[in-house]
Amino acid sequence: MTDDWFERVQYSWFQKFIINCVCSGSLPKHVAFIMDGNRRFAQVKDITRSESYAMGFDKIGEILDYCETFSIRYVSVYAFSNENFKRSEEEKAELFSLMSDKMNYLLSKIDKLHEKGIRINVLGDITLFPAHITKTMAQLELKTLNNTEFCLSLCLAYTSRDEITTSVNCMAQGVAQGKLRVTDINETLLNSCLYSEDLPPVDMLLRTSGEVRLSDYMMWQANFAALQFVKVLWPDFGFWHLIGSLLDYQRQEPLLTEHRETYKPFLEKMTKSELAAVAHSEHCSLKSHEECHFNEAVTEAYVESHQRRSEQFVSELKGERRVLLEQCAQLTVAGA
């Protein structure tokens, strides 16, 4: 494989003009891609599935360059769903072989990743993959952890339902271990327990192939995202398809921003009201009926204790996930 993944796209004068026009409007910070259509592309072009998947991987490098041009610093790609484990053993073997090759390729280009400031962020349960793939994924994430110019999130062994379920299970364990109270569990804490907790919300979610469905992908993060369903197979996705999607994003963005800005104070008010109700209930349980009345100081004290517990729990959870990542990076691989 060449260094094409890291080479800059050469734009024509007309493309540069269009880029300047698009950049005069609002642009998404985080774009999530559902890379659909690789198998159909193989059928249409009469090539092998492996060749098509390899072209799909190369397309990611091209997309990163486009996104850099538009100052889109966060890109997420749906690379391997949990549902993909149900495919035939033959196809899974092809996918795992390709995945291993591409991950090792990226690891071999670690200097390039550092030079461009690209962080590789893996979202999902990577322990479900063969050990040699898990090890390379973990090494790649750890080695690029401090790169801050650009973040590429590879969603592997991932579905939204699994991510949310994992988050809920983490909080349930926190309650069982006495680290959290049941009343500490809220939307903000759940969001902090997701795989994607350090990423901004998805602003635009784009699916290729013409299929109009989300396939259990980033459904929590894309709550206020502009949805784009593009009628082109992933390996054929190009500059003008992205331009069209960005222009449509700019059409939708004012209303989406209004909804997002309206929801934020609503969530804060709702959370504050819930915490105040819990504080009042606990205060009254220790007092006689005559002494029970709303006390602002009690509410403030409870909110502070809630925040301390939540922050400590999330910090420990991050630490545990970091330890798991480091253990995966040190896996002993048979035959290595």
What report would you give on this structure?
This protein has 336 residues and is an alpha/beta fold. The chain is 55% helix and 11% strand. The protein contains ten helices and six strands, in the order H-E-H-H-E-H-H-E-H-E-H-H-E-E-H-H. The protein has a six-stranded parallel beta sheet with strand order 3-4-2-1-5-6, sandwiched between helices.
Which descriptors would you attach to this protein?
single chain, 336 residues, 10 helices, 6 strands, 11% strand
Ordered list of secondary-structure elements with their pairings:
Layout: H1 13-23, E1 30-34, H2 38-45, H3 49-69, E2 74-81, H4 89-108, H5 110-116, E3 118-123, H6 131-143, E4 150-158, H7 160-176, H8 187-192, E5 204-207, E6 226-229, H9 239-285, H10 296-329
Parallel strand pairs: 1-2, 1-5, 2-4, 3-4, 5-6
Briefly, what is this?
The protein is an alpha/beta fold and 336 residues long. The chain is built from ten helices and six strands, in the order αβααβααβαβααββαα.
Contiguous low-pLDDT stretches (5 residues minimum) are none
Query: Globular, elongated, flat, extended or rod-shaped: what is the shape?
Result: globular
Q: Count of DSSP helices?
A: 10
User: What is the oligomeric state here?
Assistant: single chain
* Straight-line N-to-C gap: 22 Å
Give the tally of β-strands. 6
Radius of gyration, whole Å: 23 Å
Strand content: 5-15%
